[in-house]
Amino acid sequence: MVGREVAESCIDSVITEMVSAYCNRFYSAKPELASPRIEAIGFQVGLQLSERYTMERPRFTDHLEAIKFICKDFWSELFKKQIDNLKTNHRGTFVLQDNHFRWLTRMSIEPSKNSSDHPSGNTTTTTKTKESQAAEMHLCFPCGIIRGALTNLGIPCAVSAEVSNLPAYSLKSGEHEQRPPCGVQEFWAGTIEVEAGVWDLGERAMKDKTKKDTGSPFSSSYNGRANSTFQKSKFREPYPFSYENKPSEITN
Amino acid sequence: MAPLAPRSGDAVFANVERVNAELFTLTYGAIVRQLLTDLEEVDEVNKQLDLMGYNIGIRLVDEFLAKSNVSRCVNFKETAEVIAKVGFKMFLGVTASVTNWDVDGTSCSLILEDNPLVDFVELPDTCQGLYYCNILSGVIRGALEMVSMKTEVTWLRDMLRGDDAYELRLKLLKQVPEEYPYKDDE
Asked: Per the record, where are the segments of Polar residues compositional bias (chain A) (predicted)?
């Protein structure tokens, strides 16, 4: 369905400028105030977009179906491609991997003097932090979009992003079965990691992820990173919950 | 090598990467909404939208010049026409019309009847005085400044405020000749 179109540079420019305004103009001294606002903008967009893209569909039967919708149809509408890999630990955490995230491919970070000294691709901590910070700020926006979309589909969650290697990045999103019965939006910060990146296969071994060449873009492998990064929400004590008996394979 | 012929707005638009306008419309709307929440004052939001537009325009003009192959405009009239027919088309997918020239040829109106920024947008009463599309005025101002023209761009009509079209008044203030950083002799 091709509706009205605009040039891609419109959306690129507007996002870049928005992030720049929030990080460098409005909250330059306090970046921690900028990121939730950028995320909130994304949340609004995700909410409305998922509303529009699911208007003609029946409700999703379970969370996995909703996540798969995000990975396939929703991602295609936004980025003209699907998520490349989906993993889960079957306990509410999902990892979405995009190997070529459109909105970061055009990002240019001012090259630092140090980065050229390391042919292995490793950068010094400072340059990596700066690059990571800039990219993470940008990623707040798509994180918000995913969170808004999932929230609209009835799945409260937290989504976060992590930059490992520009233009590589990983988005994290946590997912929770039960919504506390109160008006306040409470959610857990879990870990759905969307790991993305253009891997320099020659130079840099992939991290301890097992990349199975199954042919299917969805694999059920999970590297157990979730446990170490599970954060408590500031509102409540975490309570254990488990995914109802779901098969371990996430097939197409 | 003969210079490439300038392309029509349609041709350029067909050749650039395009996205669903909905994403753009909703993103812009969410930004304006968040700006209103954070900055609280409508005048401040107008100012920031213009500034954001300016920052976008100073970069967008490079893409415009590269992809459209327009030759140097001989006068401001040509400039306005190019903005309306090629510029708007290649980015927003819509064309504007140019009218109401003053006697000097330094001031005109750009009229937009169709505007992707405002699809499905309604302004609540609390936003009196908001120029929702103010980013556009900044973009034009920034782009023209990069090609040595200082301009003033203001809104005369705004459909979100009840008018029947979007009308931008484009006024050329000063044409600043390009300065070379080195002496051209020898």
From this structure: 111-122, 216-232
